[in-house]
Amino acid sequence: MEIVTKLQRILVTGGAGFLGSHMCERLVDEGHDVICLDNFFTAQKSNVAHLLPRSNFELIRHDVTLPIFLEVDQIYHMACPAAPGHYQFNPIKTIKTSVLGSINMLGIAKRCGARILLASTSEIYGDPLIHPQPESYWGNVNTIGVRSCYDEGKRVAETLFMDYHRTNKVDIRIVRIFNTYGPRMHPYDGRVVSNFIRQAIQGQPITIFGEGEQTRSFCYRNDLVEGIFRLMNNKDNFIGPVNIGNPGEFTIRELAELVMEISGCKVALEKRPLPPDDPARRRPDITLAKKHLNWEPQVPLRDGLKKTIDWFRSIDMDHYRPPTPNYV
Ligand code: NAD
Ligand code: UDP
Q1: What is the DSSP annotation of 203-233?
Q2: 225 CA distance to ligand 2 centroid (A)?
Q3: I need a surface site. Which of 12, 20, 107, 232 has the fewest CB within 10 A?
Q4: Does residue 316 lie in a domain region?
Q5: Residue 260 in contact with residue 202, Cβ under 8 Å?
Q6: Whole-prediction pTM value?
Q7: Rounded to whole angstroms, how far apart are CA atoms 294 and 289?
């Protein structure tokens, strides 16, 4: 698979977030003219502060639910709260972000003839009845549950992308991202990796929801960014949807044990109720990513966790505002 890149004007929505800021960093380093657009709902300006002095980087505070007029060649559309506590904080806003935000960004892509990539999610498979999950699986989503604002929002976003593609020939890409972790995760986002690391290094009990027998597959952020980049720039015009994630599958209890072992912090395990509609199992089938993008993850969970724990130890968590009351 050949990757083609020439210098472009690139918009990254949600560009100050965990994954968006790494995408911006990579694109700025490659010399592209990068516009980072973010409303800072779950982001920190510190995620992109190091890019501000670069002449090919521009930061715009804007909400994607509102129209904006920009001229660009490519759009990475990543704006959306991703952690359950964040997207459930204001569920109506979450669905507006996915639906209105996608319509606004697809409008720019249509007008400019820009290529646009959607950061979709494994959540579109819901609580899957097929394991591991291939892209051909249509999913098992509760339309009226507390996760629906996110799951259904992303499902509609995928539909919008496909309809703009079929109807208006918009050049699209769709990536379904599975649980990704790494430095720059918000320490209070309530996601399992950030919670467990923060709790362990602060000597607090690790909160296990349910019995901890549910599984997730964790992808290190560098692997993820590489996969997304390959999808955006592959020469074969492979548009996806494609799963990008690490097929290594772990129970939540196993993750807790690993975090304690690698951090050297032995703390108590505290059981909490399992949140409603929490998927029981999740693992990506990455056959398509291997075939079309020649991509597979390189970083084992142990190595990625070590880097992430080191980063959590290096930051001052008092500088991070808990953005919602939903973290534990
Ligand atoms: P994040 O919360 O760190 O990043 C989301 C960014 O979008 C933040 O900077 C936030 O301020 C911004 N944002 C939210 N609503 C916005 C709005 N209305 N207008 C403008 N900006 C807005 O989360 P992340 O993990 O970096 O996720 C990035 C994208 O990847 C999201 O679209 C998410 O759904 C998708 N994704 C992530 C994962 C994962 O495991 N990290 C898994 C599946 C999908
Ligand atoms: N989880 C947990 N303790 C926590 C946070 C999460 O046991 O402190 C569990 C959660 O119930 C889910 C899994 O870890 O089964 C992953 O949760 P996360 O919020 O990271 O992402 P999800 O994949 O559910 O969107």
Answers
A1: TPPEEEETTS--EEE-EEHHHHHHHHHHHHH
A2: 22
A3: 107
A4: no
A5: no
A6: 0.97
A7: 6
Confidence of residue 319 (pLDDT cuts 50, 70, 90): confident
Q: Which two tokens stand for residue 106?
A: 């697809």
**How many CA atoms are closer than 13 Å to the CA of 261, on its beta-carbon side?**
10
Is 164 one of the annotated active-site residues of the chain?
no
Tell me whether residue 144 is in a domain. Answer: yes
Query: Which numbered atom of ligand 2 lies nearest the CA of 274?
Result: 11
Closest-CA residue, ligand 2 atom 24, reads 278
Q: Quick check: is 286 in a domain?
A: yes
Q: pLDDT tens-digit profile of 29-74?
A: 999 999 999 999 999 899 999 999 999 999 999 999 999 999 999 9
What value does the mean pLDDT take over residues 12-17?
98
Q: Is 266 domain-assigned?
A: no
Which candidate, 166, 178, 190, places its Cα nearest to that of 275? 190
Task: Determine the average pLDDT of the residues in 140-168.
Answer: 98
Domain residues for the domain of 160 are 9-186+218-247+281-298
| Confidence (pLDDT) at 9 | 97
For ligand 2, atom 4, name the residue with the nearest CA.
192
- Which CATH number goes with the domain that contains 139? 3.40.50.720
pLDDT of 3 reads 53
pLDDT value at residue 328: 45
DSSP strand pairing (219-220 vs 172-177): unpaired
